[in-house]
Amino acid sequence: MPSSDHALMPSTLPSHSPSTHADAAPREPQFVRVAETRRATLHFYLDGEQVAALQGDTLLTAVLMQQRHVRESEFSGAPRAGFCLIGACQDCWMRTEDGKRVRACSTLVSEGMRVLTRFATTATGADAGLGAVNKTGDAR
Question: Within a domain: residue 105?
Answer without folding.
Answer: yes
